[in-house]
Design a protein that fits this description.
Blueprint lengths: L3 H10 L2 H6 L5 E3 L2 E4 L11 E4 L4 E4 L5 E2 L1 H9 L3 H11 L11 H30 L1 H13 L4 H6 L3 E3 L5 H8 L4 H6 L3 E4 L8 E4 L4 E7 L5 E8 L9 E3 L15 H11 L2 E4 L2 H9 L5 E3 L7 H8 L4 E6 L3 H7 L1 H8 L3 E6 L6 H7 L2 H11 L1 E2 H8 L7 H16 L4 H15 L3 H15 L30 H16 L10 H11 L7 H11 L5 H9 L4 H11 L7 H6 L7 H35 L2 H28 L1
Parallel strand pairs: 12-13, 12-14, 14-15
Antiparallel strand pairs: 1-2, 2-3, 3-4, 4-5, 6-9, 7-8, 9-10, 10-11, 15-16
Length: 639
């Protein structure tokens, strides 16, 4: 059994923020760090890491624990395996204990499959370099494509011989079990039928081999490219899904690219294996591939762990681009900042990198990056003269804007769309709002508010004392509805609590009053109905909180609870309208304060003659005024 002393040493040596920071991009919020949860799909960060407490907590899916638990969840390891993992990482010897039969069997099978894959990689790589067939066919093909020995060896490329079962026979002769060979998909088992005897065959025959690595560098699968001209053969085949390989959750090249993506805060996304390798050889190492398949949400989430910025690289084939353009919308929907580069007709990232120098390739990528609006317009430029097709293009762009989770980003792109497509902003804003309303789905989990110690990025204001101004008044109103009606349902899927936390998280807002922010945070950690939660605050150990809650619930400014509940219609409730108004008033106040601050900065810059700064402030002020007007219109609609 692993001693408690060893466990303590591991916990002391492994800072939770450092370990988790190798898997996701952490953003500091006060004393803590936040990010989007690596264990479930979300658009607004609800995953918090506390270095002082040594724990993580996701307020969306509920996963929580210390650094050992994180490794268990992320790497799919047992408790013992996670301790060994961290022990090896921090050079701490881990004493052993007897595993349960189930633990031993599960670990042994996964490890055995990894060992078989490692053997296969060595077999294919050795065959490429040492066998005549491998050199004449596989290596010559790779060299003809401009790949040099260092990059071929780094990516552990190989060649599968043309024989029906050359690899399988070699693996069996070396003591590897048939069950593991078939489980990894390296060998195909054909059962006996009719007059045909049972047979085993290599999955990869006469193909260049591309090993697929996990985040930690272990080989989880393979891709194989045929060099034959037989059109009946698939150009590429991959390992089948297995206990260690899930194609939709894997990105080719991620093991080699992850540090570069994190360092540069940018990821290039390409389609094929050779695109990755050629760009890598050209010095562009923050690049991954979806392995020739349609981009999945799991792959997007994997990219998002390391960077919020993605540049999608397309070849010059219009038909291919139009078939895969859905991936851009998926990236936008996940909240990523998306750019696009289109290569010249007849070129792709691989061919361009081979025919140009490393500097020319990088310069091309930098100079030809464009946002998705320009990209879609250029893609359909020939159709712009047809009113119906132009209308379709506008609707397509607007739908892409509507799925963006961030309100300010949507506003900026509405402005861009209006300018480039010559259509009024108000029309676009209305259409975006209509689409978002139609698409809106309610989460079953509340969002955690950001740290109480950090002020809102949107408002730029300093912390304030309870009840000292209008903003504090707004926060107090929101707390009233939360504490009094938090668990009351506004509709079938949404309580007041969920509605408030979602509305705040949507625009990354946090209470400016540290006192009210503390109450908000404590509320989120409570369980029970409204009465239980109210009693908690009324009887709070901090007399200031108890006093303020009693004042809040008896504030004549707030609605009479009994009258309110008695007046609630069955379907469209007064409660929902008033909670919505409280949130809108709060957001409007924050944006108005921001506009005032920017206007003051603008006056100062005009007095000082700072032309560049004036333009920057004007642009930001225009955006914020549009946001303010949008909130005001929505509020007027409810009044």
């Amino acid at each position: 059994m692993i001693s408690q002393d060893t466990i303590e040493r591991i916990l002391e040596a492994a800072p939770i923020e450092a370990v988790i920071g190798e898997y996701v991009t952490l953003k500091r919020r006060g004393a803590n760090y936040v990010t989007c949860c690596p264990f479930h799909n979300e658009k607004t960060p609800s995953f918090s890491v506390s270095p002082s407490k040594g724990i993580f907590k996701c307020f969306g899916c509920g996963k929580a624990g210390n650094v050992i638990r994180f490794i268990m969840e992320h790497e799919q390891l047992t408790y013992r395996e996670a301790l060994k993992f961290l022990g090896n990482k921090y050079n701490i010897p881990v004493d052993d204990r007897e595993e349960s039969p189930q633990e031993a069997e599960s670990r042994l099978r996964r490890d055995s499959m990894m060992v078989v894959n490692a053997y296969a990689q060595e077999f294919y790589t050795r065959y490429l370099w040492e066998e005549q067939e491998g050199r004449d066919v596989g290596l010559s093909y790779l060299q003809e494509r401009g790949l040099k020995e260092p990059v071929i060896r780094e990516f552990q490329l190989g060649f599968a011989p043309a024989g029906k079962n050359v690899f399988t026979n070699a693996a069996l002769a070396d003591g590897y079990k048939q069950d593991l060979l078939t489980s990894t998909g390296l060998t195909i088992h054909y059962p006996a039928r009719d007059n045909m005897p049972e047979a085993l065959a290599d999955r990869f025959q006469d193909r260049v081999i591309f090993p697929i690595h996990s985040l930690s560098g272990r080989i989880i699968g393979f891709g194989g490219r045929t060099l034959r001209t037989d059109k009946q053969l698939s150009k590429y085949i991959n390992s089948p899904e297995s206990e260690i390989y899930n194609k939709s959750r894997s990105l080719y090249g991620i093991y080699f690219a992850k540090q570069h993506i994190t360092k540069l805060q940018k990821c290039y996304l390409v389609e094929g294996y050779t695109d990755v390798i050629s760009l890598f050889q050209a010095g562009i190492r923050n690049v991954v591939s979806s392995s020739g398949t349609s981009l999945t949400r799991e792959q997007i989430r994997l990219i998002k762990r390391f960077s919020q910025q993605v540049t999608v690289l397309y070849d010059g084939d219009d038909a291919g681009i139009k078939a895969s353009i859905r991936g851009i919308d998926m990236l936008l929907e996940e909240g990523l900042q998306v750019k696009v580069v289109r290569f010249p007709q007849g070129d792709d990232p691989d061919s361009y990198a081979r025919s140009h120098s490393a500097r020319e390739t990088l310069d091309f990528l930098k100079k030809n990056e464009t946002d998705f609006i320009h990209f879609k317009i250029s893609l359909m430029a020939d159709e712009m003269k047809d009113p119906l097709k132009r209308s379709g293009l506008i609707r397509d762009v607007v739908e892409s804007i509507a799925i963006m989770p961030d309100a300010i980003t949507r506003t900026v792109y509405i402005e861009e769309c209006s300018r480039h497509l010559d259509i009024k902003e108000v029309v676009l804003t209305r259409e975006v709002a209509r689409i978002r309303k139609k698409r809106t789905t309610r989460s079953a989990h509340p969002f955690v508010p950001p740290s109480v110690t950090e002020t809102s990025e949107l408002s730029g204001q300093t912390a304030i004392s309870p009840g000292s101004d209008d903003l504090s008044r707004c926060e107090k109103d929101i707390l009233y509805y939360l504490i009094k009606f938090g668990q009351t349902k506004l509709d079938d899927d949404m309580t007041v609590c969920h509605f408030i936390f979602s509305a705040l998280a949507e625009d990354e807002l946090e209470f400016q009053d540290p006192f009210y922010s503390r109450i908000l945070s404590e509320y989120n950690n409570l369980t029970g109905d409204d009465e239980v939660r109210m009693k908690f605050f009324i009887n709070h150990s901090d007399p200031d909180i108890s006093r303020h809650i009693l004042d809040l619930l008896n504030d004549p400014h707030t609605i009479n609870v009994k009258v309110l509940k008695e007046s609630l219609p069955v379907e469209e409730t007064l409660l929902k309208e008033n909670v919505t108004k409280a949130i809108l008033v709060y957001k409007l106040k924050i944006v108005s304060l921001t506009c005032s601050r920017l206007a003051q900065e603008l006056r100062q810059s005009q007095q000082l003659g700072e032309k560049d700064k004036i333009q920057s402030i004007l642009k930001e002020l225009t955006v914020m005024m549009d946001v303010r007007n949008s909130f005001a219109r929505e509020l007027n609609r409810l009044n």
